[in-house]
Each structure stands twice: as C-alpha cells, then as structure tokens.
Design brief:
Blueprint lengths: L12 H25 L2 H15 L3 H4 L6 H17 L18 H4 L3 H11 L5 H8 L3 H17 L2
Helix pairs in contact: 1-2, 1-4, 2-4, 6-8, 7-8
C-alpha cells in the first residue's frame, strides 16, 4: 500500500485548507476587494495574489475558533494597503488610498483621506500617526471622526 505522502495527486493539509477557503470565501473576498478598488480585473488579480500569500498558512485559517472571514479581510486590507504604496514612498509624504475611485474617499479632504487610510488600511495607531504627522493626537482623532461622519452620511 502506498503512503499518502508518496501519492503525487494527494493534497497536503495546507492545500486542502486553501481549496476549502477558496470555495467558501473566494467569491465574497472578490466582491470585497472589487468594492475597494472599483475594477473587476484588478480585483481578480489581487485575489490571486492574496491566495498565493495565504497558501503558506491556510491550514491555520480554518482552525476551530478562528474567524476565517475576518482574517481574510485583514489580509486583504494589508495587501491592498501595501500595494497602494509606491516601492520607495515615504509614508507620511504620500497619500495612501486604496481604490482611488472610491466615492466615499473622494468626499474627504486630503488630510482626512490620509488619516483615515493610514488608520483603517494601514492599521496605524492614532499615536503613531500623530507623531508621524507632527500633530496632536486630539487633532488626529477629531479629523478621523469628521472623516467617518462624512463617509457615514455620504456628504
């Protein structure tokens, strides 16, 4: 009897997990990404790159107690944030805004976009962003509240 590991057609645990994740969440993740970048072709390419990335740890994403959908969204946000930055950009001198055509982000001022995108997509803390921008933390929080209000109200 042949061993499972000697079978070239057998899927590893990680490959099986990746297939499971793609079958369950692939379409939803594509919709999520497409909503951010507003371009179906780019979204499909990002989806491929994200699945290549998670292929290294896919089995960890389907463990009991892990919110797979939330983790996929976090991975996608990080990926989109990193891909939106030029390779040699300085974070505080470049507006980081995934999905330049995003209607909600276009309603924000440049400062609001910068703060919102760095906190939401870049996962920076208010304290870190305040230091980076050489502003008071309360000013960053106020600007973020204003940005969220504009996004929520659509105006």
């Amino acid at each position: 009897m042949k061993s499972f590991t000697n079978n070239p057609h057998a899927l590893t645990k990680n490959e099986s997990a990746l297939r499971t994740i793609f079958n369950r969440y692939g379409a939803a993740l594509l919709g999520y990404i497409a909503g951010v970048v507003n371009d179906r072709i780019k979204a499909e390419n990002y989806l491929i790159e994200i699945f290549k990335h998670i292929s290294r740890f896919a089995d960890e994403l389907i463990l009991p107690g892990v919110n797979t959908w939330l983790r996929l969204q976090q991975v996608a946000k990080n990926f989109l944030y990193k891909s939106a930055q030029p390779a040699n950009s300085v974070a505080d001198s470049k507006l980081v805004s995934p999905g330049q055509k995003n209607k909600c982000l276009n309603l924000l001022t440049t400062e609001q976009q910068h703060i919102f995108c760095n906190i939401y997509y870049g996962h920076k803390s208010v304290q870190a962003l305040a230091q980076e921008m050489q502003k008071d933390e309360d000013d960053i929080r106020r600007c973020l509240r204003e940005a969220l209000s504009v996004i929520r109200n659509g105006q």
